[in-house]
Amino acid sequence: MMQLFRRLRPLKIVIPVRFKGHSKDHWSRRDNKLGTLKAIKHFDDFYKTVYGKSWDDIRKALLEERSKYIAVINNFSDNERTCTELEAIGAIDMRAIYNVQKEILSETETRKSKKRTEELNKKKMQREMDSFISQQQLSELESIYPGETPEGQHSLSDLMEDEKFHIKEEEGLKPISLKSISADAEIEYDTSRIISASSGLSVSSLQEFVPATKLKGLDDWVLESDHYNYYTKGADFTIKVEDDDSFSIPKHLKLYTFEPDNYNRFRTSKRGTTGVLDYYLMDGGSILPVLALDLQLGDNFLDMCAAPGGKSLAAIQTLLPATIVSNDKIESRVKKIKQVMGTYISNISQWDKKILITTRDARVIDDYEVFNKILVDVPCTNDRHSLHVDEGNWFRPEYIKERLRLPELQSEILVNALKLIAPGGTVVYATCSLSPIQNEGVVQMSLKKAFEEANVLAVVKDLSEGLKPFKYLYNFGKGKLKYGHIVIPTMGNNWGPMYFCKMTRIQ
User: Which of 11, 109, 169, 474 is 20 to 30 A off residue 490, Cα-Cα?
Assistant: First the structure.
């Protein structure tokens, strides 16, 4: 028996691993993408009701791995060399695009205006000719029938003006179809003017932004409209919207990108002779809230939720503000701001009186009337990020309560910004979400709360006119929003989403 055992070879037992060789979408690996899967399910349910047929194209762009960027040229490095190098790889100056498009629009408007003037002149000449002919006809008739008009009778001119004596072009008789009114006759109702009782003529502040769908979270279904009932209290608050054509690119802010449908990548930024990097890359939509601030020389600027620091850096590159405060609540995020500033600003230690980096809760900052420009780029669902990155994803089950409270947090931050801003100053609210609740809904409720709590009154600025030259690079959506503007992702220019709304305090 022992000899038999010695002659036998050792048995090799292979234990199969159930997920070995499985695709990344297999159920065994699905927990690693739990947030992204829930995000796309939520967006399909929600945004389909908001954007209709357009959602399919938006969805395709958001899920595309390739997204587009702009390069913010660093004025503290070798900026002329940097611009030359970027142009050599096909990048184009956004200011040049803006100016060309503005000129084209101006010429188009001039042609339209000239055409309208010609049409008005033509109509005026026609009226004058008709009047002249009528006077000539009246004179001829009076020459044929001279004499005074007896009392109680119409004069010849009265008869000419009387509609009964106007000669009308003879119209052909049209047959009239008589229909029976018997009980079995088919009657077609005109329903175009019927108002449904469910249409809700008394619109509440946020209900109109909330779809009648449900959001799945954890093991239960949570009705979003129930959660957002808090915002229905501001239905009767009127918000004034004014036209504002001040949107432009500051002189010293140099921005480069690639034309539509061009997905060339920017090279890795290198250090110049001053020891800092040549340019900063950011999503193309992210620059618009900074431009909306309309920064001027000597402004005191606060970036309330600044991390990672790209928008603050862009504001610095305008070379306009007197002071810049970049704030964030979490220490790890503040560390990122400091890292960005140190990487792009030479001799950063010498800027301690001009550039301040703080760690405060944006809801309780109390530096009243110190700033005249405030950027409120609030925490949001970050739609593009939620579809591609699972770590820290707002749609993971453990974050459901925090996500549902996002609009409340956003509103608290915006209300405090409206209280802080000096009268006449500008607040720009921004998110990277397509959600009307986080965007226009929060703006509406915040303006109402700021007025009720602190007697702060602000108007919304409509930037549509100034944004027209940017339509070559940005899709601002088909319908006009009530209180702001939004960049819609497209396959040709795959950046955004980015919502921004400019408000000016008048009281």
Answer: 109
